[in-house]
Amino acid sequence: MATLRLGDEAPDFTAATTDGTLSFHEWKGDSWAVLFSHPKDFTPVCTTELGRVAGLKPEFDKRNVKAIGVSVDPLEDHHAWAGDIEEVTGNALNFPLIADSDRKIADLYDMIHPNANDTLTVRSVFIIGPDNKVKLTLTYPASTGRNFDEILRVIDSLQLTAQYTVATPADWKDGDNVIVAPALSDEEAKQRFPKGFETKKPYLRVTPQPNK
Q1: What are the catalytic residues?
Q2: Rounded to whole angstroms, how far apart are CA atoms 63 and 57?
Q3: Which of 2, 100, 174, 209 has its CA 20 to 30 A from that of 161?
Q4: Exposed, middle or buried, 13 (CB in 10 Å: 0-12/13-18/19+)?
Q5: pLDDT at residue 28 is higher than 70
Q6: First to last CA, the chain
Q7: Counting Cβ atoms within 10 Å, is residue 90 exposed (0-12), middle (13-18) or buried (19+)?
Q8: Which pLDDT tens digit goes with each residue over 29-38?
Q9: What SS3 state is found at 112?
Q10: How much is the CA Rg of the chain, to the nearest whole Å?
Q11: pLDDT at 121 over 80
């Protein structure tokens, strides 16, 4: 399958996971989802990542986000590895980890990059909206652990900009000023953003975050 692009429907699948067999779209429901892949079980970077995601569950819950991991290793390895994850990070695995031994999901989501490694999944991240559309993709090499604070920041931006006619500037964090969408006239912007806005350039107007 061709590379998934932003706005494409996230492919559905049924898979064995550490939480039992699940169908992705049904499991996800009307939540947001973070689907992220790991090159291999019992590897150092992956161990830290899975523990970090488990520790962030309250933050994901607050945002109506479900996390789900995928690795090409079998289910028995996932269960055995869970003990290491808790021992090393202090966080027990609290989200499903997919066993993708036949690489069906890795192929559906183009998680294997032959020029990097022709058997192992790279560190892919897909953020998927309630409409099952792909909202963001990130691809890291196997050697580089992901920044999950950045993933939370992106989710905050995606959820905000889905609700309001705004964009978020460079290095934006929840609570910072946002950019009024250029498509809005000044009159429309005054109606939509009662806190007002500052015009820095005709195409760049900033306003306080509207849901704060």
Answers
A1: 46
A2: 10
A3: 2
A4: middle
A5: yes
A6: 42
A7: exposed
A8: 999 999 999 8
A9: coil
A10: 19
A11: no
Distance CA 114, CA 123 (A): 14
Q: Which long-range contacts (CB under 8 A, 24 or more apart) does 120-123 make?
A: 120/39, 120/40, 120/72, 121/37, 121/38, 121/39, 121/70, 121/71, 121/72, 122/37, 122/39, 123/36, 123/37, 123/38, 123/39, 123/49
Q: Which of 69-73, 146-150, 174-178 has the lowest mean pLDDT?
A: 69-73
3-state secondary structure of 153: helix
| Number of neighbouring beta carbons within 10 Å of residue 17 | 20
Structure tokens at 182: 């250029």
Distances (CA, A) of 193 to 155, 157, 166: 22, 17, 10
- What is the Cα–Cα distance from 64 to 128, expressed in whole angstroms? 12
Structure tokens at 61: 């819950």
Question: What mean pLDDT value characterizes the chain?
Answer: 92
Please give the average per-residue pLDDT across 110-129, as a whole number.
74
- Which pLDDT score, from 0 to 100, does residue 39 have? 81
What's the rounded Cα separation, in Å, for the pair 196 and 194? 5
Tell me the two tokens of residue 47. 């161990």
Q: Check if the beta carbon of residue 122 is closer than 8 Å to that of residue 15.
A: no
| DSSP state, residue 158 | H
How far apart (Å, rounded) are the C-alpha atoms in residues 107 and 104? 5
Structure tokens at 164: 């309001």
DSSP letters along 21-73, please?
Answer: EEEHHHHHTTSEEEEEEES-SS-HHHHHHHHHHHHTHHHHHHTTEEEEEEESS
Unique residue bearing structure tokens 């992956």: 46
Mapped onto helix, strand or coil, the DSSP state of residue 126 is strand
